[in-house]
User: What shape does this take?
Amino acid sequence: MKVLIVGGGGREHALAWKCAQSPRVREVLVAPGNAGTAAEPRVRNVDIAASDFPRLLELARREAVALTIIGPEAPLVAGIVDAFQAAGLRCFGPSRLAARLEGSKSFSKDFLQRHGIPTAAYRSFTRGNFDRAWLRSQRAPIVVKASGLASGKGVVIAQSLDEAEAAVAEMFSGRFGDAGAEVVIEQFLQGEEASFIVMADGEHVLPLATSQDHKRLQDGDLGPNTGGMGAYSPAPVVTGAVHERVMREIITPSIRGLSRDGTPYTGFLYAGLMIAADGTPMVLEFNCRFGDPEAQPVLARLESDLISLCEAALEGGLDRVEAHWDRRAAVAVVLAAAGYPDAVRSGDPIAGLDAAAGRPGKVFHAGTRRAHGRVLTSGGRVLCAVGLGDRVSDAQRQAYALVDCIRYQGMQYRHDIAHRAIARELSAAAGRPIDATRQGGHG
Ligand code: AMP
Assistant: This one.
């Protein structure tokens, strides 16, 4: 069969690489893909943007694509799955209405509240009904979020009420376009974050391996927020007991609530969680797709056939399948371009990809393109190096050995991806209580 992956980032490279391993797949098409997907065996790029629904539909028909998997949120929120379904084509992802869980934070918070699912206390406002006196009566730190899609950049953790008010004003003034026309202001939650990603079929859920990402640009979780500078799987903060609570208190009621609201959810569902010190999970956000960079380490550990899991989901049969995981840990280090996350420079030649390909682990591409026989940077997040190992520290060492092969002008990356998990590992080995603030460097 032929499979189509829509998108062109690191997540889509990982999806295409995984699908191409299925014995049932003859060819994987990626639209538009990147230089990494172009070089992958049994994978072919097609130069169509993820937003160009008519041409994607035409491609799926012409190539007799049996299954399409949508990577990024923007086409999902714009209704690509509805368009494919209306044309009688099988497409894995949530409908436009279900994807509002990510497309509108205010919708998603109202949904959580309506169904009694734990999340930070909040209020949402438009410019017309903004209640400044209410904001002034709150306590800092407080969190201000643009309600619409803002590529992970529309969140401000305000350390004072003045800062919160300035963030609200900035959002209403159009800094994030339409995404900031409505804002959510919510209570600041303490704890450790984890990414809990599941596959859903409208009714049943198959939880994927847990993961944790690093959103800040610099070592020690400092600097500006980004789309994600690295991730690892599994996330030790999600113990068996926490996993059970997340399923019972968050995932199951969410899937049931969506179904009861008449918008059943099929696709990858990503719950960004804050786990309090006592193990209580709360929802920070929902994403309507696989995480990026979480997809890279999670899919690197998936031993089951992804195609069969997606098909089971489209048939409403996720209760009848299981996912098998490599027991090793995976650590993924993102290599970003000069200037990221602000004004990104593109077009820098990348050296060392061949050397990296000869080493254990895997380098997934994100913002790359091929020109005149060379691979050039072409986006904020450029590559993602994934290592596997029995211990998280082994996986980290393998990932950074790949990073050490690669060079381009202005390359930025963090040196401490997975530091929390490694701190836990070291503490457990020494029989000491856990101090998650300790750093676990890679070298
Ligand atoms: P979001 O896009 O809503 O997940 O927010 C991006 C990041 O901001 C999260 O990964 C957290 O690090 C942080 N964040 C968001 N909401 C809160 C909150 N209520 N309390 C503490 N941190 C938050």
User: Anything to note?
Assistant: The pocket of adenosine monophosphate is lined by residues 120, 143, 145, 152, 155, 157, 186-189, 193, 215, 272, 284-285 (CB under 6 Å).
